Structure formats: C-alpha cells, structure tokens
Amino acid sequence: MIVRVKGTKTQHVAAIVKYNPCTKYARGSPCLYFDRSKKCDIPPLTCEMPQYDRWYKDVLKRKRKCFYPHRIRLLQNPGLPMFLFHVHHHAIMGEAQIVRSTTENGKNFYWFDKFLSYPHPVQLELLETDSRLARMAGQGQWRCVYIRQETVEEIRNLSKLPDVKRKKLGKDLQKTIGHLEKRGLLYELFRPSWQIYVRNESEKLKKDYKINEQILAKAQKYFSASAQLKLFAGRPFNERFYGLLYLTLRMLKIPTLVNDIAEISDVSPIRLEKLYRLFARELNLTVPPLDTEQLIKSRTSRLNISKKTIRRAVSLIKEAKKRRIIIGKAPSSIAAVATFVACQKEGEKVKQKQIAKTFGVSTVTIQNYSKNLEAL
Question: Above pLDDT 90, what percent of the chain?
Fold first, then answer.
C-alpha cells in the first residue's frame, strides 16, 4: 500500500545543488584562499589557476559523470533530475538525470550519463513558482534545495531549451514518478524531508552509538516543533538535528560535552554550541547547567584513575562551591581542574593533556584554574 500525505501533488521531485568552483572537490586540490579565515580578492570567473572550476569543465567535456559528496536524500532515487547552480555564474547552468548513487569512505556520489547544458542559464531570482529560491540566491549557507514539478517546468522554460527536448524531459520525469509509485517508493518522496532524515539518523545513532530510544524520541519532538515554527529554514539538517540532540541531552541532565556530539557529526563544537542556545531560546526552554560532579564521574572512566581519586575530585568541587571560588567558571573547566588536582594529590600519573582532551578544554585552562583548588 502506498501511503501519501496531504498535498502530494505539490511535493518535491527534483533537487537544485549548489556548486562552488573553489572547493576542494571542484578543483581537485584545496585552494589556499578557500578558507573561512581568509578572503580571496580575485573576482568570480577570473581565476587563472589551472585547477579552478576543473569539475565543471570536465563535466562539459564528459570526462566527469558524478556530483560531489554530500548526502542528498532525494537523489538516491534513480531517474530524478539534478539541477546545477553555479555560484560564480550565479545561475542554474544545466541539469542531469541521476542514474545511481554510491557511498565510498562515508562520502556520497551521484552518477549521471549526460549533463544537459542550458542555452540560457537560469537565475534563481527569476523563478516565480517557488518563493524560497529568490531569497536563497544571495545566501551562502545552503547546499541543496528540493523543488516541485511546476518549478522544474519553469526552469526548463526559462532555459530556452527546444520544445521537443522539454517535452521529452517532462515525459521522462513522469515515467520516473510512475516507476517509483509501482515500486512503493513514491511515499518516501512525498514525505517531509526532515522526517526522513531524522528517522534515518536516529536509527544510525541507535545502532552505532547505542543511544537510548527515549533520548532520540525527545530529540525528534524538538525537531518537529522547530520544523513547525520554521526555525532556521534552509540550514543543513545535520546542524539542526545534532544541535537539538545536544539540547535534548542537556534538558535531560545527561552529562554530555558538546565535543561528544561533534565527534559523531560533521558539525563543529562552536557551531553546535551556538545552535543549541538559539533553539533553546526560540523554543522557550530553560536549559539546566551541567552537573560538575556527575560530569567527573562519567568522564573519568576514560582516564583509568582510582575511585579514591574520583572521590577526591568531587570533594574538591564541593569545598570550592562552599568557598565560592568557582563561580562563573564553565563546568567542564572546573571538572577538568578538579580531576587534575586530585590526581596530583593522590599520586596518579595522568598527563595534563590527556585530562584536557577528556573534558574538552585546553591545558592553559587547567594551568590557570588549578591554583585556586590546590590550596583546598
């Protein structure tokens, strides 16, 4: 039985992917200037380096037949079209029909037999059937956007493709949708994309990292609430999901560091920290502070230190709280310092660098704060 949700006639059947000719995959090698900490002063399309825009040039010459590796759920269904938005041309340059998708070393590749280059590139600002696209034209954060069939037709009309070619492409798309319907896959296309992502990501975390189902269910509820409020629409799903997962763990008072979530996702700790605070504010949630004592008990298992040392670290924190000498300090920093001082007092030979890594702080932080606890 094919399950459809309300409004299937206007759901997504294609994807516009964003292509930047300065990225590592597009060039074949990393560009020294393509870094968030640096700025390249060379105007678009004027770079004289031979590696510049190599991927797109190879595609036009039919030397390259796969799109670069980030996960695009919709294009895992063969036969659906992929539209290429070139950042420096600031337009959709053409399209390709995906024939298969593969995953190699955790990277996703989407293969096509032929890339159809448009006689007239299409700017996102000209598209009227999807109000999102005009806003996204000037934004730099998006990587992929799913579009409806009417938008597909509008793009092809504006591209000035011959009528015969447009009709053939339209028939091919209808044939693909019919084929997916017969296979019982059509409902996956017509389900909101965030639901698919959250479900798949939750299953992966439950299988690979043994994360409790109750935690994942709570994170899914937060994601559903944020989706209904349209919070941070257009932001990558992985950033939103893992930011909300960290928020969930904090709300449940589970001693977790942001570095733990960063390790199982492709999102930086700084980004996660910022996102979870934004979500907490928008969802009107009061996040309880990390319990320093619980943090010590949960993290010190990685350091192979004695229970006596752990008790000493906990007692140091209790005494420091009484004397009010750790007010305003981050819980992870205080936990790391207390553990380091306790190891010194108990004669445990644990490197300062190892403790800093375990608690996600720097060795400088331990050195600066340790003087406050050594006298206790």
Answer: 39
Statement to judge: residues 90 and 217 lie in one domain: no
Map residue 16 onto helix, strand or coil: strand
Percent of the chain as helix, strand, coil, to the nearest 5 = 50, 15, 35
- In the chain, the DSSP E strands lie at 12-19, 66-67, 81-86, 91-104, 107-122, 144-148
User: CA torsion sign, 32 to 34 to 39 to 40?
Assistant: positive
pLDDT at 94 over 90: yes
| Neighbour order of strands in the sheet with 12-19 | 66-67, 107-122, 91-104, 81-86, 12-19, 144-148
Opening angle at CA 66, ends 41 and 25, nearest 5: 30
- For the chain, the C-alpha Rg in angstroms (whole number) is 26
Q: How many Å is the maximal CA-CA distance in the chain?
A: 84
So what's the pLDDT on residue 208?
86
Q: Are residues 89 and 179 in the same domain?
A: yes
The model's pLDDT over 322-374, given as tens digits with 9 standing for 90+, comes to 888 877 788 888 899 999 999 998 888 888 999 999 998 889 988 888 877 77
Residues 148 and 145: their CA atoms lie apart, in Å, by 10
Can you tell me the mean pLDDT for 235-250? Answer: 90
Query: Is residue 261 domain-shared with residue 178, that is, in the same domain?
Result: no
CA distance 84 to 115: 10
185 lies in the same domain as 233: no
My answer on whether 158 and 13 are in the same domain is: yes
Domain extent, residue 216, equals 193-282
Mean residue pLDDT across the chain: 86
Please indicate, yes or no, whether residues 147 and 68 belong to a single structural domain of this protein.
Answer: yes
* Residue at which a domain ends, from 154, 174, 190: 190
Question: Has residue 146 been placed in a domain?
Answer: yes
Q: Which residue has the higher pLDDT, 227 or 284?
A: 284
CA distances from 26 to 72, 111, 338 (A): 17, 15, 48
CA angle 290, 293, 299 (to 5 degrees): 85
Which residue from 225, 216, 329, 198 is spatially nearest to 280, judged by alpha carbons? 225
Same domain, 99 and 243: no
Residue 86 pLDDT > 90: yes
